[in-house]
Structure formats: C-alpha cells, structure tokens
Amino acid sequence: MRVGLFVTCLVDLMRPGIGFAALELLEHAGCEVVVPATQTCCGQPGYNSGERDSAHALALKVLEEFERCDYVVAPSGSCAGMIRTHYPDLFRGEPVLLARIERLCAKTYELSDFLARVARIETVPGTYAGTVTYHDSCSGLRELGVKSQPRELLAKVPGLVLKEMRANETCCGFGGTFAVKMGDISSRMADDKCANIDASGADAVVLGDLGCMLNIEGRLRKRGNTRTRVLHVAEVLAGKVEA
After folding, report:
1. Which of 118, 142, 176 is the last residue of a domain?
2. 95-102: which pairs have CB atoms within 8 A and are 24 or more residues apart?
3. Which of 17-26, 38-47, 93-102, 174-183 has the lowest mean pLDDT?
C-alpha cells in the first residue's frame, strides 16, 4: 500500500529524527512510503486563531500533495486530528472540494493508530532497556481515539516496561497557542504533569506529539529534572533512542 508520510512542520524543524523513525516503521510494516518534498503545515495554528483563509489554503495544499496516496499517516495526533476532524469545516459550501477532502480525511491516521489498526504489525524494530510512562496527548486521544494503540505497540518492544502515571489523560498545558495566550495556567498544568511523571519513577516519558514533548521536556528541565528522558513513541518503536 502507498502511504503518504505527513512529517509535520514541527517535526521537520525541531526533531527530524522522529520523521525518520516514522519512515522506518512504515517501511517495516511493508508500506511504500511517499514523502512529498513540498509539504509544510496542516494549517492548525491558523485555524485555531481564526485565520480560516490561510488554513483553507494549506488544507488545499495538503489535499493536492496527498490525495493520490492510499493512506496519509502523521506522527502527531494533533496534525492528524486537524486533517481528519476539522478540514471538512473549512470546505462547507464547496461540495466538490468537500467530497475530495472527506475522502482524504477517511484515510488519514495518526502513526500508532495506523500501525496497530491498519498495518497490524506483529513486531517492531526497536528495543529498550528500562521503564517508561505514557502521556496521552489531547488531540490524539479526544479527536482520534488514540489510547490503547501506542500501548499495544510499546508492549512489543523487548526490554521495555510501562509504568502508568497518575492522570495520564490530563493535558500537559501546551495546546498550541494556548501556551502563549494563557501562560500562567499552562505552566501550572505542565507542573502538575511533571509531578506525575516524577512520581511514576519511570526512566522516560513517551508520547505521540512533539508539541507536548517540547512543553514537558522544557518544564522538567526547568524544575531541575535532568534525568527523565522525553521520547516520541516512533523513536522508541524504531529503536532510534540515543544511548
């Protein structure tokens, strides 16, 4: 099957290794992977800020780049959720485009959801010697139902032990522009999340959205925790975790 990898702009700019790990996992699953070189943003920041025209333009760009793929996969519940859940709202009143957009939405998946539910992989390339805890990022959980899928995949990693933290479904306080607009509230939410990570005693916190990763890692370090690693689930599954 021909799978388009939507790398996401944040991964491309901040932690491209996640994109390469996702690519390896999709190839491990037997997919023919296409990575359009012109891809940029899904349009979520503009959409959330009321910039519908810019979001509409970016959604059209994504449509043109990926609609010939059998599936579209993103290592981000936030971006996959934007495409699958919110793109149709941008094309109300445009029936021809809306039909194309809805077909794109139907074949768009977050990475762990695709690997567990569509590709149904039996093994993963990675190994991990240690304990991890998992943070459920809001968009993947609430918009796409991503909950058991990453845990099922992590259970296939030799050596890995999962220790659930308290309130693993509670927001870390990032929320895209929320962290900028409501900085004090965001910081308090991040502190609560970091306290739960600390209490778990895990060697690392694993999650599926880079925005949450950057928020949590920054707050952990500011609180003096230099021990706990912050890892994307793709990095762990693919064995792309630096020693």
Report:
1. 118
2. 97/60, 97/63, 100/63, 100/67, 101/59, 101/63
3. 174-183
The reply to whether the predicted model has a pTM over 0.90 is yes
Residue with tokens 């991040």: 190
Tokens of 126: 């990675």
* 117-148 per-position pLDDT tens digit: 999 999 999 999 999 999 999 999 999 999 99
> Do 136 and 231 belong to one domain?
yes
* DSSP alpha helix (H) spans, the chain: 9-14, 16-28, 44-48, 52-66, 77-81, 87-90, 95-106, 111-113, 138-144, 148-154, 178-181, 183-200, 210-222, 233-238
| Residue 196, domain member (yes or no) | yes
Domain count, the chain: 2
Nearest one of 185, 176, 167 to 211, comparing CA atoms: 176
Give the three-state DSSP class for 157: coil
Residue 74 DSSP one-character state: E
The mean pLDDT of the chain is: 96
In this structure, which amino acid lies at residue 233? V
pLDDT mean over 34-44: 97
- What pLDDT band is residue 5 in, cutting at 50, 70 and 90? very high
Cα angle: 6, vertex 91, 179; to 5 degrees: 55
Structural domain boundaries, residue 61: 2-118
Contacts with 192 (C-beta within 8 Å, 6 or more apart), sequence order? 167, 170
Conformational region of residue 150, where left means phi above 0, alpha means psi within -120 to 50, and beta covers everything else: alpha
- pLDDT of 180 above 90: no
